[in-house]
Design a protein that fits this description.
alpha/beta; 10 helices; 6-stranded parallel β-sheet
Length: 263
C-alpha cells in the first residue's frame, strides 16, 4: 500500500527528548519510514533541508506549505480602531517560542507607548515562569494571559491586535504567522526559521534574529509608531496569503501528490 508522510516540525528524526538508546532507535525507525514512503511532505524548505541531511539521498521529499482559511482569518480595520495598541502572541507557553523576549520588549517600550498591552494566548509548561517575569517587570496590568482559546476566538484576537509577534527559535513554519497575516496584520518572526520563506522583511512582515531583543524593540516601535507602515505591511501580508497560502492552495498541492502516489 503506497503511503506518504507529512513532517510538521524541525525534529524530523524524533531525537529531541530522551537521548541515548531511545533517541537512536527513534532516529533509525524514522529513517526507515521515510525511506519506505512514496514521498515525504515537508511544510517548509527548512524542514526539507533537515530531512535531506539526516536520510539517504534516495529519500523522496517535497514541500507543501500550510494553508489558512481566509474567510475565518480576515481583516476588520474598523474594529481595531476601538482598542489600545496591542501585541498578540499565540502558541504553546514554552521558552523556545520567544515569550520572554516579547515581555522584555514591552518593558522597553512602556515609556514610548504607555497604553500598550500584550495579550498571550496558549498554555504550556512555562506559563508560571512567564507570569512571574511579567510581575517582576512590573507589567501586570499590561499583560494578559488568556489561556487556550477556540479558533474563532484566536481569529477575533488577531483582528483586534496591532502587531502579531512570535520570535520563536524552533519553528518548522508556524500556522499562526499565516493566520495573522491573513487578518491583515504585520507578523514578526525570526530569521532562520520556516517562516522566513514566507515573510519578506519590511514588505509583508518583519524578521529579527533569534534572541534579538534590540531588533524586536526597534521593529515593534516602528510598526506601532507608524500606522502607514503597519497598514502597508498588513495589506501586503493579506495579499501574500490570498496568492499562495490558503487552504485551497494546500489542498490542490496535496491532491496532486496523492494522485501521483497512487498512479
Amino acid at each position: 500500500i503506497p503511503f506518504v508522510v507529512t513532517v510538521h516540525g524541525l525534529d524530523v528524526l524524533n531525537t529531541c527528548y530522551m537521548g541515548g538508546i531511545p533517541a537512536a532507535w527513534r532516529r533509525k525507525v524514522s529513517v526507515e519510514v521515510y525511506g519506505a514512503a512514496r514521498t515525504v511532505i515537508c511544510i517548509s524548505r527548512k524542514v526539507q533541508e533537515i530531512l535531506k541531511t539526516g536520510t539517504p539521498a534516495e529519500t523522496c521529499s517535497t514541500v507543501v506549505y500550510n494553508g489558512v482559511d481566509p474567510g475565518l482569518f480576515s481583516p476588520n480595520p474598523a474594529e481595531m480602531e476601538a482598542f489600545d495598541p496591542e501585541i498578540l502572541m499565540v502558541g504553546n507557553l514554552q521558552r523556545s517560542k520567544g515569550h520572554e523576549l516579547v515581555l522584555r520588549a514591552v518593558e522597553n517600550l512602556r515609556s514610548s507607548f504607555p497604553r500598550l498591552r500584550c495579550r498571550i494566548i496558549g498554555e504550556g509548561p512555562d506559563r508560571a515562569h512567564f507570569e512571574a517575569l511579567a510581575r517582576e517587570l512590573g507589567m501586570g496590568p499590561q499583560v494578559q494571559f488568556a489561556g487556550r482559546q477556540s479558533r474563532s476566538e484566536v481569529a477575533e484576537a488577531m483582528r483586534r491586535c496591532s502587531v502579531f509577534a512570535l520570535p520563536s527559535r524552533n519553528e518548522g513554519l508556524g500556522c499562526v504567522y499565516l493566520e495573522a497575516m491573513s487578518c491583515g496584520k504585520p507578523a514578526i518572526g525570526c530569521r532562520g526559521q520556516g517562516i522566513d520563506e514566507v515573510i519578506e522583511h519590511g514588505k509583508n512582515g518583519w524578521l529579527i534574529p533569534a534572541n534579538g531583543l534590540d531588533e524586536l524593540v526597534q521593529g515593534l516601535s516602528a510598526l506601532l509608531g507608524s500606522k502607514e507602515l503597519s497598514t502597508r505591511i498588513g495589506t501586503a501580508a493579506r495579499q501574500t496569503i490570498l496568492e499562495k497560502f490558503t487552504l485551497s492552495h494546500q489542498a490542490r498541492n496535496l491532491a496532486e501528490i496523492y494522485r501521483h502516489v497512487i498512479a
